[in-house]
UniProtKB/TrEMBL annotation:
GO terms for molecular function: phosphatidylinositol-3,4-bisphosphate 4-phosphatase activity. This is phosphatidylinositol-3,4-bisphosphate 4-phosphatase. The lineage of its organism: Eukaryota, Metazoa, Chordata, Craniata, Vertebrata. Residues 1-123 form the C2 domain. It catalyses: 1D-myo-inositol 3,4-bisphosphate + H2O = 1D-myo-inositol 3-phosphate + phosphate. Keywords: Hydrolase, Lipid metabolism. InterPro entries: C2_dom, C2_domain_sf, INPP4.
Length: 852
């Protein structure tokens, strides 16, 4: 019963002491209890955990409970030793055994506690000389609520994804994963305003998506760039100028492929780890891995109330730490690059970002629709073979819809002009009104000046229109033939005079339908393939210009963007999976999920000064790129997967409970928003002497995005249906957030508090970040948890600071610090903390300047 399995804790113990005697008779002891397990086989102590310090009290009541993780398997025979110390100096808190004063100890078995009357044991403390004169310790057994939870730690999931780059979308890929692991659990008891006790459990876990998502992305990046090289080769023969550009671009892509392959090989060597510690944030081989990604859940059990859960994802700011921030981050670098590219594109045709985005869209649409059209065409022939009139009708409708969508995509002036430009890049090209001795390929040709695009005198400008129009004509022929066949079939169903029956039987051939349709369907597929071939080359040529203008700076920026996006996507996938399982039985949440999507609110505590402003510029772009990610829920089985998606398979029994729209694979959108408020001493410098316009712009822009999401949600999902939440509540919070965003106030952390509250009330996913998600993040997470206990569960105001100190001193966040830097101290010093907002300062004795 004592054994702690992830999400299944039923029994914890909380100690108290009575009549403690300090060595100095004129003072009351500042007590804490150290807990250790006695190994039954080796008969030695295994140090486990400590309670918080209760100052100057001979009858201390401790708020921090004791639980045991899986490495301490407990049975009724397991012995537990409690040692009470007088911690006279809190600055030596982390070396208690050596520097604190021993008061007494007691030992009991787990079975004693389970059998105890009133679920508590009162034990005498034995002093160092063995005399029972040191007071008593009381061990109380506390039960968490009996709410049934899904065993998320045992779920397997497949995560394919997309690449946010400038060419075309990627095929998806799946790998089986175990999602959460290595839980750390802490339990507390706090008093409510009416004098009752609530039990609070916080549990922190690593997420295996930290490594699996980046590894999948790297594999997809390699596939994509390999396909780019193949498309460039298939452009055919080009004039020397264009051929040299192509070779240079191909060399660059070859270098990227080699680099990504080396990185993937290094990541494959990493075994047994599911998070990247903050001390490795600038390690080259791990730059695609999110920093210190963890989930944290707080569960609250109150008398006569249903248990409540609050989740948050903590992750270091998605940023390219290895590449550094000497010249800024992505937001600044991309703006500067786009401005410079226009003025230096002398060696190629300049296409605007809108044109290259359109080229990417055309390529991705063709890659989706062409195989689908081919498959539907084959299904149509199969229905004809079976002489299924219903099958013909249904398949033809789908084929018509997809083919019309295909044709509409290609009716674009960009495709035609790119074909002409490609033709002009062939060897021996001569423009209209041009002397054959004059070369045009060395000139810059802006796309916006359509008259300046070269025209081949032997190239018919209307040829492309005829090519894509032929697809529509072939489709019309197929439709007409199907109508004819069905009309003939209808006539055959009419009563036939007996004297003509033999003629009907002898003339009827079951293979006629397929034979009549086959030539037309074959011609349709041939026309589609011809269009795909021409359009692919045209769009590849457009993207060749983008790549040629990108040498070398654009390639370096894209690699930086890949790194940042990889970190952001891993965090988002972790948050989505956790939120999905939490809301699996909430019909309102599931309806919101497929009708509108979820808001994913990223809270950042980065300063707008020095290197951190570069991190924030990286983070802004990475979070923005998440807008192009969608999720798809599937039943866990081996199937071909769709494109552009993060796919989350669920066990069959769970999957069957979902709404039909989700089970049918409807893409589920996520709306990422980012709010930043710097809180450290560097932000003080920025506010007084520097520039905080980046923070102001981010907060204003993302407030508008959050407001737009709320409006869309309120139109489709009545918020009054949500328990305890009304439109008026959220609207009032949004108005307050909007006012705070435009208010000139230093370190206005109310922006973060209000945005977090709105996110939770909108069923969103919460993320908190700082440079490494270790120190400032810990202050924010613990403050948010205590604020939730106060606002949602009536935590007594007398216990607010005590609860905050307990969580920061002995909770999951100090364990996170230990995991990252092997030291149980937050990386702050006293001078830094003077610049922090009051409630973001850790308790005395828990901080000291260390390398982070």
């Amino acid at each position: 019963a004592w054994h702690d399995v992830a999400y299944h804790i039923n029994v914890v113990a909380v100690p108290a002491c009575n009549d403690l005697v300090a060595l100095g008779r004129d003072r009351k002891p500042s007590a804490l209890v150290q807990v250790a397990v006695i190994d039954p086989h080796k008969q030695h102590l295994i140090s486990h955990t400590c309670t918080e310090i209760v100052e100057a009290n001979k009858d201390p009541l401790f708020l921090t409970g004791v639980t045991f993780p899986s490495e301490y398997p407990a049975s009724p025979e397991t012995l537990v030793k409690l040692t009470v110390y007088d911690a006279k100096d809190k600055t030596v808190f982390f070396s208690l055994v050596l520097q604190s004063t021993f008061l007494g100890s007691a030992t009991f078995s787990v079975g004693d506690l389970l059998r105890a009357k009133d679920e508590r044991l009162t034990l005498s403390l034995r002093s160092s000389d063995g005399v029972c004169a040191a007071g008593t310790v009381v061990v109380s057994r506390l039960k968490m609520g009996e709410m049934e939870e899904v065993g998320v730690d045992h779920i397997t999931t497949d995560i394919p994804s997309q690449k946010v780059k400038q060419w075309f979308f990627l095929p998806s890929l799946c790998l089986p994963l175990s999602v959460f692991k290595n839980p750390v659990c802490k339990v507390y008891r706090f008093q409510t305003v009416d004098g009752k006790w609530m039990i609070v459990r916080e549990q922190m876990e690593e997420c295996t998506l930290s490594f699996s998502i980046p590894k999948q992305l790297l594999s997809l990046y390699i596939q994509e760039d390999t396909r780019r090289l193949q498309d460039l080769r298939e452009l055919g023969e080009l004039s020397p100028h264009w051929d040299n550009l192509r070779k240079e671009v191909m060399t660059r892509y070859g270098g990227i492929i080699s680099f990504y392959q080396e990185t993937l090989a290094e990541l494959d060597k990493v075994t047994g780890r599911s998070f990247k510690p903050s001390c490795c944030k600038a390690q080259k081989s791990l730059e695609f891995i999110p920093i210190n990604l963890h989930t944290q859940r707080m569960r609250v059990t109150c008398p006569r109330k249903t248990d409540a859960f609050y989740d948050i994802i903590t992750v270091g700011a998605p940023a390219a730490h290895f590449q550094g921030f000497k010249c800024g981050g992505l937001q600044r670098l991309l703006s500067r690059y786009e401005a410079e590219k226009k003025s230096t594109a002398y060696q190629c045709i300049y296409y605007s970002p809108e044109h290259t985005a359109k080229a990417q869209e055309v390529l991705s649409t063709m890659s989706l629709l062409q195989p689908l059209i081919t498959s539907l065409a084959d299904q149509l022939l199969q229905a004809a073979q079976e002489q299924s009139s219903t099958g013909l009708t249904d398949t033809l409708k789908n084929l018509s819809d997809k083919t019309e969508q295909f044709v509409h995509t290609l009716k674009d002036e960009l495709v035609k002009s790119a074909l002409l430009a490609l033709h002009a890049a062939r060897p021996g090209y001569i423009t209209k009104n041009q002397n054959p001795a004059t070369s045009v390929t060395e000139k810059s040709v802006p796309l916006k000046h359509q008259d300046s695009i070269p025209h081949h005198k032997e190239y018919d400008e209307e040829e492309w229109d005829r090519v894509w129009a032929s697809v529509a004509k072939c489709l019309n022929c197929v439709i007409a033939m199907v109508d004819k066949l069905q009309e003939e079939d209808s006539r055959k169903q009419e009563p036939v005079p007996e004297q003509h029956l033999a003629d009907v039987i002898t003339s009827h051939n079951p293979g006629d339908w397929r034979e009549q349709l086959c030539p037309l369907v074959t011609r349709l597929k041939e026309c589609v393939m011809e269009v795909v071939e021409k359009a692919t080359k045209a769009m590849t040529f457009v993207l060749l210009q983008e790549a040629a203008c990108s040498i070398p700076q654009g390639f370096l920026l894209q690699q930086r963007r890949d790194v940042v996006f990889s970190q952001a996507l891993a965090a988002l996938a972790c948050g989505f999976v956790m939120r999905l399982y939490t809301g699996m039985k909430d019909k309102s949440f599931l309806r919101q999920l497929h009708l509108v999507g979820l808001v994913a609110q990223f809270e950042s505590l980065l300063s707008t000064y020095s290197e951190e402003i570069g991190m924030l510029e990286d983070m802004e772009v990475g979070i923005s790129d998440l807008q192009r990610v969608v999720f798809k829920i599937t039943e866990a089985k081996t199937d071909d997967l769709d494109h552009f998606t993060v796919e989350v398979p669920l066990p069959q029994l769970v999957f069957q409970t979902l709404p039909e729209e989700i089970k049918e694979g409807k893409p589920l959108r996520v709306f990422p928003v980012l709010f930043n408020v710097g809180i450290n001493e560097q932000q003080t410098i920025a506010e007084r002497f520097g520039d905080i316009s980046l923070q102001e712009r981010i907060n204003q822009k993302n407030f508008e995005m959050l407001e737009a999401y709320y409006k869309s949600l309120s139109e489709k999902v009545p918020l009054e249906c949500k328990s305890g939440v009304t439109q008026g509540d959220i609207k009032e919070l949004l108005e307050s957030l909007g006012q705070n965003v435009v208010t000139k106030k230093r370190k206005n952390v109310e922006i973060l508090w209000i945005a977090g509250t709105i996110c939770r009330r909108l069923n969103g996913i919460r993320f908190t970040s700082c440079k490494s998600a270790k120190d400032r993040t810990s202050m924010s997470v613990t403050l948010e948890q205590c604020a939730l206990l106060r606002d949602e569960h009536q935590l007594s105001k007398d216990f607010f600071i005590r609860a905050l100190d307990c969580m920061r001193r002995e909770g999951c966040r100090i364990e996170n610090v230990q995991k990252n830097i092997r030291c149980r101290k937050y990386a702050f010093n006293m001078l830094q903390l003077l610049a922090f907002p009051k409630y973001y300062r850790p308790p005395e004795g828990t901080y000291g300047k260390v390398d982070s």
